[in-house]
Amino acid sequence: MTTPTTTTNMTPPMPPPGQPARAQTVPGVPPPTGAFQGVSWFAFGLGTITFLYAVWFAPEATVSDRYFLYSSFLFSLFGCLSVAKVVRDKQEGIPVTALYFGLSYVAAIVPFLMVSYNLVYDSDMSYSHRGLLGMAYALAAFAVIAVAKNERDRQVANRQRATRS
Question: Which of 17, 32, 82, 112 is close enough to 104 for a disulfide, judged by CB 3.0 to 4.6 Å?
Answer without folding.
Answer: 82
